Amino acid sequence: MQRTSKDLKILAVLLLITAVFRLWTLMMIHTGIDERDYWYSAKSLSQGLEYPYVNHRTIRWSVILPVAAAQLITGVHPNAYYFTPVLNSLAQTALLFFLGFRLFNRKTAIIASLCMIFFPYQIRAASQIRPEIFSITYILALLWFFTDYWTGDGAKARRGLILSSVMLYVAYHAKITNLFFLPGMLVLIAMNQKNTPRKALADMAVFGGICLGAFLIETLLYGLLLGFPLGHLQIIANNHVGGLDTLGSWTELFNRYVSPYLQAYWQVPFALFLVCAIDGLAGKRQRMLPLVIVPALSFFLFITVAISGVHPLKAAEPFTNRYFSAVLPLVFLCLGWYASYLADTALAGASPLRRRLRRAFVPVSLAGTALFIAAYSIPSDKLPLSGYFAAPFSRNHPFYLNERYRAVLNASWDQGLAIVGADSHEGENAIGTAAWYYLDIARYGARRAPSGIVRSGSRQSVTYISLGGRDPENADRFVNVVRKPFRMAILPIERLPAIEGETFDKNALIVR
Questions:
Q1: Which of 1, 38, 381, 466 is exposed most, by the fewest CB atoms within 10 A?
Q2: How far is the C-alpha of 175 from the C-alpha of 182, rounded, in Å?
Q3: Cα(103)–Cα(152) distance, rounded to whole angstroms?
Q4: Which residues, given as ranges, of the chain have pLDDT below 70?
Q5: What is the pLDDT of residue 509?
Q6: Contact 10, 101 (CB under 8 A)
């Protein structure tokens, strides 16, 4: 099926919808350590700062290096944080559209793209620098190159095989669980009808050998340069798997698919995918369906059964919904084809209606996008889901809040005011957010951000965390920072005891 100018118009509309929906639903920078580690590790590389430390997050190079490259262009203003997540979202829309069109048809391409754009978790994923927003892009690129191997011959097929293996290795450096696609890719090589058994084995050796060779070189470098002779696996074992909960039985491995670990908006598409996958493979519905079904099934199988210990029994990964993000595009491509197939069956004798529906997509989408912009650009707390939306030019949007917080926090620092958080995990994260995102590098010393230091008040029986160890009692005011989401207020010194825990005086001078 050849692409036409109409298809490019449809893609342009889908990209517009993506951009609008992402910008209108951006969340504040998350105050957890994960996002901070990725941002600050990249910041260290792009700005010549001291690298923070080595753990399983600060060696995720397929997240850190693209962010560092972007920082060289955009700088490190807090609003630059959103550049790579939004860019990934746009790339995913384009890749999904082209893949859906290439593997199946136009309707599948549109349905899969829209499912990805409006999937609820993407509101968070596309607002934060985390492995999932990068993993989705890398897995789509892997599938794009592997399609050349599946459908091509000669040099084109060899190039597709090599590049898809390279993309799997790149995806592994975003999140190690992306290797759960590997068995499925090897099965696809064996299923390729063009291959003799000998050629299939040779191609499997090439595909797996590229990843294995790169992994061995990487492990050698980690041992020589960082003192981790077992490389990535040793770093993960030291920093990630130790705190996982003990399971009572093997059947509890399937708890990751039930509430409260997995919500209904994940469960429903996954259940539909399982039904479609069984039907698609057993009924041989479409020759391209295995390309999306087999790797997805491989991922689901291994993320379910992978364990980090037997005595006691522990899963290899926590029961967290975001760990399924990488498989979403394959799920939506499969469901998109089935939706297209059922629609074609239902409208088999209604070709004029089908033509009208096709012609209506672009104008209806543009009108709907314009209506969305108009509705959710009006300041209102009464609109449906208004808590999730804010126009980019409003005072409630992260763009405005980030710049306001940055300006006030830096001015307060220059005035000598103490930046203080509660003596708790929440306070520690709030202080880290203030230092690693909002405090300008010009205020750093010794090529590193100032750290939070626990101090005790001399006039009050209270402990707190002070950025850089500053004593708030040297001034009549201090800056109180809290998380979930990040907020700050300038309070009189008499309010110092009130910062304990997650309390925050809403009548105080909230900086907005």
A1: 381
A2: 13
A3: 13
A4: 1-2, 239-243, 348-351, 353-354, 357, 380-381, 458-460, 497-512
A5: 41
A6: no
Express the helix, strand and coil content of the chain in percent, nearest 5 each.
65, 5, 30
CA gap 251, 248 in Å, rounded: 8
Beta strands, E only, 27-146: none
Question: Measuring CA to CA, how many Å separate 223 from each of 53, 218, 230, 387?
Answer: 16, 9, 7, 48
Q: What does the alpha-carbon distance between residue 60 and residue 171 come to, in Å, rounded to a whole number?
A: 10
Q: Which residues of 6-41 are buried (b: 16+ CB within 10 A; e: fewer)?
A: ebeebbebbbebbbbbbbbbbbbbbbebebbbbbbb
pLDDT at 387: 75
Give CA–CA dist 304/286, Å, rounded: 27
Cβ atoms of 107 and 7 closer than 8 Å: no
Q: Each residue of 216-240: pLDDT tens digit?
A: 999 999 999 989 988 888 988 876 6
Task: Say how far apart CA 288 and CA 146 lie, in whole Å.
Answer: 12
DSSP β-ladder status, 419-422 and 477-482 = parallel
Check residue 460 and give its pLDDT.
60
Q: What is the DSSP string of 333-356?
A: HHHHHHHHHHHHHHTTT-HHHHHH
Q: What is the pLDDT of residue 508?
A: 46
> Could you tell me which residues are beta bridge partners of residue 467?
452
- Say if residues 292 and 334 touch (Cβ distance below 8 Å): yes
- Residue 30 tokens read as 């998350």
**Under a CB-based contact definition with an 8 Å cutoff, are residues 91 and 84 in contact?**
no
SS3 327: helix
- CA distances from residue 102 to 175, 286, 329 in whole angstroms, order as listed: 27, 13, 14
Joined together, the tokens standing for residue 495 give 């309010």
CA neighbours within 13 Å on the CB side: how many for 131?
Answer: 23
CA gap 8, 94 in Å, rounded: 10
**In 3-state terms, what secondary structure has residue 422?**
strand
Which residues, 6 or more positions from 117, have their beta carbon under 8 angstroms from its beta carbon? 14, 17, 18, 21, 89, 93
Number of other CB atoms surrounding residue 220 within 10 Å: 12
Other CB atoms within 10 A of residue 67 CB? 24
Q: What is the pLDDT of residue 499?
A: 64
Q: What tens digit of pLDDT does each residue of 317-366 get?
A: 889 999 999 999 999 999 999 999 988 887 766 667 667 767 788 888 88
CB 410 within 8 A of CB 440: yes
Q: What are phi and psi of 55, to 5 degrees?
A: -145, -175
SS3 258: coil
Go through 73-83 and write b for each residue having 16 or more CB atoms within 10 A of its CB, e for each that does not.
Answer: ebebebbbbbb
- Residue 512's pLDDT is what? 41
What does the pLDDT read at residue 507? 43
Per DSSP, the three-state class of 217 is helix
Region of 447 on the Ramachandran plot (φ > 0 left; ψ -120 to 50 alpha; else beta): left
Tokens of 123: 């509101």
Q: How far apart are CA 316 and CA 102, in angstroms?
A: 35
